[in-house]
Design brief:
The complex is a heterodimer of chains A (91) and B (154).
Chain A (H helix, E strand, L loop, with lengths): L1 E4 L13 E4 L4 H11 L3 H5 L10 E5 L2 E2 L15 E6 L2 E3 L1
Parallel strand pairs in A: 1-5
Antiparallel strand pairs in A: 1-2, 3-4, 3-5
Chain B lengths: L9 H14 L5 E5 L8 E5 L3 H7 L11 E3 L2 H10 L6 E9 L7 H10 L4 E7 L3 E11 L2 E12 L1
Parallel strand pairs in B: 4-5
Antiparallel strand pairs in B: 1-2, 1-4, 5-6, 6-7
Classes of the chains: A alpha+beta (91), B alpha+beta (154).
The structure holds zinc ion.
């Protein structure tokens, strides 16, 4: 089980919970299991093709999975995974 | 967000302007924890990670840091965690090199998607000075100007 940290803008999907424990050998599986438990959150995180949306960051510990193995990034027992809307913008 | 327009302490604004100038021609970014007018408020200058995201996935992130900003992991987590603490973030800032302080379509897309309960400060950074800054607040699906701050000659 990994602990998934849920920031304030996404807590409407987790009945207000700040964190939830979710199983999954990698981030992709973890997201599948998260969505199965908390309907609607999956769509918020991934597009219809299954890719992580541009303005969503998923961190395992302090590293964005885009700098690791993406959805294949392995998740170990006790890992902390954070799913956080990107703080971003431009011209 | 609703309620009164937050004050920005002069030393916070000066630091943000210095940050914008030091980062030019790239965008700078950061945030203010707590209300800037209050004693415990803290300015957090962030590193713009946009170039790193562009390097690893140019298809998803076609822009470089000259035209976009993105917080890195530590700063993103710190801002997210602030909403569970005593001094939640109140303002996220970034600079616009050369083009003026407006809330762009990209800024709007990102901010609407995220849903952070903050105001957004955009700094008009020119090559040799900061021309000013504008504070924007969400109103429905748009962001409107709620305060304007003068610039300074560099
Ligand atoms: Zn912008």
């Amino acid at each position: 089980m990994a602990t998934v940290r849920i920031p304030t803008p996404l807590r409407k999907y987790t009945e207000g919970k700040e964190e939830v424990d979710i199983a999954g050998a990698n981030v992709g599986q973890l997201l599948d299991n998260l969505d199965a438990k908390h309907g609607g959150i999956g769509e918020r995180i991934r597009d219809p093709k299954g890719a992580v949306r541009r303005f969503v960051n998923i961190f395992v510990g302090d590293e964005d999975i885009r700098f690791l193995d993406g959805l294949e990034t392995p998740v170990k027992d006790g890992d902390e995974v954070s799913i956080i809307p990107a703080i971003a913008g431009g011209l | 967000m609703s309620g009164s327009v937050p004050a920005i302490r002069p030393e916070h604004l000066a630091s943000i302007y210095r940050h914008a100038q030091a980062t030019f021609p790239k965008e700078c970014c950061g945030f203010i924890l707590g209300a800037s007018g209050d004693a415990p408020a803290q300015l957090v200058e962030c590193e713009n990670w946009q170039d790193k995201y562009h390097a690893v996935d140019p298809e998803t992130f076609p822009r470089t840091a000259e035209r976009a900003y993105m917080f890195g992991a530590k700063d993103t987590r710190r801002l997210a965690d602030s909403f569970d603490g005593e001094t939640p973030a109140t303002i996220i800032y970034h600079s616009h090199p050369r083009v003026g302080a407006y809330f762009s379509e990209e800024d709007t897309r990102a901010a609407l998607s995220a849903g952070w309960a903050v105001d957004y400060l955009v700094v008009d950074c020119q090559e040799d000075h900061v021309a000013g800054a504008v504070l924007f607040r969400r109103e429905g699906q748009a962001f409107v100007e709620v305060a304007r701050f003068p610039g300074e000659r560099g």
